[in-house]
Design goal:
Radius of gyration: 19 Å
Helix content: 40-55%
Number of domains: 2
CATH superfamily of the largest domain: Response regulator
CATH architecture of the largest domain: 3-Layer(aba) Sandwich
Strand content: 5-15%
CATH class of the largest domain: Alpha Beta
Strand order of the largest sheet: 2-1-3-4-5
Distance between the termini: 29 Å
Number of helices: 11
């Protein structure tokens, strides 16, 4: 079985890939990071059984991309994944042809259950949007190429130092602590730049997790995703990935 996972956060892609492999059997996970990847990889892998598609990719809005994918591959089921689960967003995704909608805060067990249901020909939506379910006030998801929330960025800049913001940006790109230390060392103006100490990165990471109210790196990436903030927002024009 082939499953395409498209998300611009490497840590979240890895978490989803790990959950998918819990399906058992021979599962091949193909990863993409943006709308262009989604369209190209779906075209280049005609044997795909399923696509897990981030609703908030930086280069396309969810409904437009989903509509384009379904037009090109009408029989291929697509499950939308998102940090935003307001009823109107779920409804828009399902109306555009999604076979399911999964919140990024879902447990791996729930993700597997949803995938199995969709692969069996069913549809999955969160219980919170079912008729009669109580729900929190609707949250709107900004569309377009710049999804970062200015208030969210301002809040992060108040809670984190400039160096911690860079560490967080590199974390969102999927860098390990050692890779972060090396990358920040290369940014130094010194003639022979050397990595900062990995222990320094760990200290920054501890402060970041505390500021975000989480305990693990993947949870930090998810928390920032829910704010609508991406790596390039934290790293500026230097982020080319």
């Amino acid at each position: 079985m082939q499953v395409l996972v498209v998300d611009d956060h490497p840590l979240l892609r890895s978490a989803l890939a790990a959950a998918i492999k819990d399906l058992g059997g021979d599962v091949e996970v193909i990863e993409g990071r943006d709308a262009a990847d989604a369209l190209r990889l779906a075209r280049d892998h005609p044997g795909l059984d399923l696509i897990l598609l981030d609703y908030a990719l930086p280069d396309a809005d969810g409904v437009t991309l989903l509509t384009e994918l379904k037009a090109a591959h009408p029989l291929l089921p697509v499950i939308v994944i998102s940090g935003f689960d307001a009823r109107e967003i779920v409804t828009a995704a399902m109306n555009a042809g999604a076979s399911g909608f999964i919140s990024k805060g879902s447990t791996p067990k729930l993700i597997v259950t949803a995938i199995r249901l969709v692969l069996d020909g069913g549809k999955y939506v969160p219980e919170s949007v079912l008729p009669g379910a109580s729900s929190a006030p609707a949250r709107t998801l900004p569309l377009g190429h710049s999804l970062a929330s200015a208030p969210a960025l301002a809040d992060l800049r108040q809670r984190l130092t400039p160096q911690e913001l860079r560490v967080l940006g590199l974390l969102l790109k999927g860098y390990s602590n050692k890779e972060i230390a090396r990358a920040i060392g290369k940014e130094s103006a010194a003639p022979r730049a050397t990595p900062i100490a990995e222990s320094t990165v760990k200290a920054h990471m501890t402060n970041i997790l505390r500021a975000l109210g989480v305990q693990r790196r993947t949870q930090a990436a998810l928390a920032v995703e829910r704010l609508g903030v991406h790596a390039h927002d934290l790293l500026g024009g230097e982020d080319k990935t």
